[in-house]
Design goal:
There is one protein chain. The chain is an alpha/beta fold. The protein has two domains: 232 residues, Aspartate Aminotransferase, domain 2 (3-Layer(aba) Sandwich), CATH 3.40.640.10; 114 residues, Aspartate Aminotransferase, domain 1 (Alpha-Beta Complex), CATH 3.90.1150. Helix content is 36%, strand content 14%. It is built from twelve helices and 13 strands. Strands 1-9-8-5-4-2-3 form a seven-stranded mixed β-sheet, sandwiched between helices. The chain has a three-stranded antiparallel β-sheet with strand order 7-6-11, with no helix packed on it. The longest helix is centred in the C-terminal third of the chain and has 18 residues. The chain is globular, with a radius of gyration of 21 Å. The two termini are 21 Å apart. Bound molecules: pyridoxal-5'-phosphate (PLP). Pyridoxal-5'-phosphate binds next to α3 and α4. This is dTDP-4-amino-4,6-dideoxygalactose transaminase. Keywords: Pyridoxal phosphate. GO terms for molecular function: pyridoxal phosphate binding; transaminase activity. Belongs to the DegT/DnrJ/EryC1 family.
């Protein structure tokens, strides 16, 4: 059996099934009390009371871009190193994707490159905390203030990652999380948009449900802005509420494994470990590093029943983004060597040791 690179954590049957049965037969499976209870628990975890649940991380990105005021023709600075939804969402609002280059020691957006891409048309900067590593928030917060451009943190991979000792989710104007099937925590599908004020929260809440204000009776409503059908329902929220009992343990095991690899893989010829920025600590959704002869490395690991891969296609390869084509020399160098190995809750102590000794044996 191959050790997979991602795997959903589902709570024990005896904890989850009675709760699911209750809600399924309760007569109220739409958005209701379970959703609001889950939002409180999740909001406490990410230290942000303005945390709005949605049915996906993509929905959260879409609403964030609308709220940032991105209109057709406006520019959004982003990275090619991400899953496609980050950048597809920009196209949903008619924005132009502007690629900035990465810091070769992290693979995350380079503040110097981002600065050089800012124009009068820039309406937002999307920072992807790729694979659970946190972008250089110290620098990006300065850029955001200096140019008055909001930051959207795409933290789909980074639940439980920290900035200045606190779980991320309350730093920038917008932070999005994904609870999709393979993330640190899953509700099968789901997402969160974390905001900075009651006003923003109220607008986002309407945007998630046709533009209707769910806190008022239906017959007293007046839609002023078209919204979507992006809400979470009581069934997914019930899974989320049960997951919250395990979140410290599950996210904690990713982090513990990541720290183990940080130590055990130091000083191995052909491997370069990544740097973590000041005031940040990763939640290691994947363990990411740079290796020489990547293809040989991946084959070598597969021969030891360990999945290793680059996982994502650089997003500028898609025709959808052809108008954004630009040179990204630092990224090119980084991407040639980048590889992920498994780091999640499913690794036993023996698995971790086996992974390290497979790497130590050379490829
Ligand atoms: C970096 C990143 N952003 C956004 C998303 C979108 O999340 P979702 O699948 O919940 O829509 C994903 C995951 O698919 C992702 O990996």
């Amino acid at each position: 059996m191959m050790i997979p690179i991602v795997k959903p954590y589902i709570p024990p049957k005896e904890k989850l099934f009675p709760e699911l049965e209750n809600i399924l037969y309760s007569g109220y499976i739409a958005e209701g009390e379970k959703v609001y209870e889950f939002e409180k628990l999740f909001g406490a975890y990410v230290n942000n009371p303005f945390s709005l649940s949605l049915n996906s991380g993509t929905a959260a990105l879409h609403i964030a871009l609308i709220m940032a005021g991105v209109k057709p023709g406006d520019e959004v600075i982003s990275t090619v190193l991400t899953a496609e939804p980050t950048n597809v969402a920009i196209k949903l609002v008619g924005g132009k994707v502007v690629w900035a280059d990465v810091d070769p020691s992290t693979g995350l957006l380079d503040p110097v490159s981002v600065r050089s891409k800012i124009t009068d048309k820039t309406k937002a900067i999307i920072l992807v905390h790729y694979a659970g590593m946190v972008a250089d928030l110290n620098e990006f917060t300065k850029i955001s203030e200096e140019f008055n451009i909001p930051i959207i943190e795409d933290a789909a991979h980074a639940l439980g990652a920290k900035y200045k000792g606190q779980n991320i989710g309350g730093v920038s104007e917008y932070t999005i999380f994904s609870l999709q099937a393979i993330k640190h925590m899953t509700t099968v599908d789901g997402g969160f948009l974390c905001l900075k004020s009651q006003e923003a929260f109220d607008r986002a809440r309407k945007l998630r449900w046709f533009g209707l204000d769910k806190t008022r009776p239906r017959l007293e409503n007046d839609i002023t802005e078209a919204g979507y059908k992006y809400h979470m329902n009581n069934v997914n929220a019930t899974i989320g509420i049960v997951q919250m009992q395990y979140i410290e343990q599950i996210v904690g095991s990713y982090i513990e494994n990541g720290k183990y690899f940080d130590k055990a893989l130091k000083n191995i010829p052909g491997i370069e470990l990544l740097k973590y920025y000041d005031d940040t600590s990763p939640s290691y959704w994947l363990y990411t590093m740079k290796v020489d002869n990547r293809d040989a490395f991946i084959k070598h690991m597969a021969a030891h029943n360990i999945s290793a891969s680059e996982l994502h296609l650089r997003n500028d390869r898609h025709s959808l983004f052809k108008e954004s084509a630009t040179e990204l020399p630092a990224f090119n160098e980084f991407y040639k060597k980048m590889v992920h190995i498994p780091c999640g809750w499913w690794l036993s102590a023996e698995d971790r040791e086996m992974i390290v000794s497979a790497i130590n044996s050379g490829w």
